[in-house]
Amino acid sequence: MSSLPSIPVPRGDDSAAPLRPVPAPVLDGPAGDQLPAGDQKAAGMPELARAKPPASTGGGHADLATVVVPTATVFDIANLAVDYGDYRAVREVTLDIREREITAFIGPSGCGKTTVLRCLNRMNDLIDGCRVEGRVGYHGIDLYDPKVDAVEVRKRIGMVFQKPNPFPKSIYDNVAFGPRLAGVKKGPELDAVVERALTSAALWDEVKDRLRSSAMGMSGGQQQRLCIARAIAVEPEVVLMDEPCSALDPIATARIEELMQELKTRYTIVIVTHNMQQAARTSDRTAFFTAEVNESGDRRTGVLVEYDDTQKIFSNPSDDRTENYVTGRFG
Asked: What CATH number corresponds to the domain at position 178?
């Protein structure tokens, strides 16, 4: 199993103390086309680590180069709140996400599901005026610690968006994009990476004879599987999916759901969905969010109502609001 590259830790003298690797597959994959400029420099970084109590160095800086021990909990989230300017979009979210499981976020529109999902790989950093409070821990590391490089976070935690967003390139170049940034330049090694990713995304047999054709000529379902292949080509530990089937027909949706079950043997998956049947079919654990109207105005703030095993959420929820939602009484 390959070691992860490192997250540089900026210090007062502009040097970097590397956080060291989680022993899990490496990754990068462009999180769609929304990554900021400068992601290219992610290639070749040293390693990601769990911080222990820092030891003081001679220069007065903390030495954070410590080893991460992999745990069954990939994310530990505590008292998470997100503001957009003076608007609080979500508050008081506390939950943990387990390794190699599918976790579903469900709830009505405007309840903060996608906002929380985007916190897991710091995509909200790209939104002006967004402020995140609380803790988002990844194998014990606070992802919002100022020492942590957001680009390196997105290398380990890939994302697939609601609408398929292939690059205007060939099928081959779409999948090869991330590995090339990570230093795999050409030849048999890159060919093998592309074939492996497309096979894992259940797409190889459909496109192996037209890899140099434009990805824009693919069907919607094929494009979404291509985006999944692109995300996993650099072998992230986690794949985030924001309503990946909302623009697809039932046949393509079923294929994506089958693919998710295959992928969870190697990756941790977190999915936002409005399709409760999809959550019930595919996920191991489910978090139900709702929106509360602020007393001071008509703005709504998302809150986490209940988080449990999916079977319990859909058959015997603990909160009446969850039962009303999953039975169709509101939402």
From this structure: 3.40.50.300
Whole-angstrom Cα distance, residue 289 to residue 328? Answer: 15
Nearest to 103 by CA among 296, 285, 293: 285
Note down the domain range covering 188: 99-122+142-326
Higher confidence at residue 173 or residue 27? 173
Q: Choose among 34, 247, 32, 26: nearest CA to 159.
A: 32
The whole-number pLDDT of residue 198 equals 96
Q: Is residue 88 part of a domain?
A: no
**Model confidence pLDDT, tens digit, residues 7-45:** 444 333 333 333 333 333 333 333 333 333 333 333 333
* 90 within some domain: no
**Distance between CA 220 and CA 247 in Å, rounded?**
8
